Amino acid sequence: MKRRKFLQYSGIGLAGTSIAKKITQISTEWKKSFVETSDVIVVGAGTFGVWTAYHLLNKGAKVTLLDAYGPGNSRASSGGETRLIQTDTDNEIYVKSAKRSFALWKRLEEESGRNIVLSTGRLAMSGDISYRQYALNRKEQLASLGIDNTEVLSHDEIRYRWPQIYTEDIVTAMFNDSGPSGSTLMARKGIQAVARQYENNGGSLIIAKGIPLVENGKVEGIDIGNAEALRAQYYVFACGPWLSKIFPTLLLPRLQVQRRDVLFVGTPPGDDRFSYPNLPEWSVHGSGYYGFPDIEGRGLKVAPYPDFNSFDPDIDERVVNPYQVKRAHDFARKRFPALGDQPIVESRVCQITNSIDSNFIVDQLPDSDNTWIIGGGSGHGFKHGPAIGEHAANRILGMSYDLDFSQEFKLKEEVFNSD
Question: Is the pTM of this model over 0.70?
Answer without folding.
Answer: yes
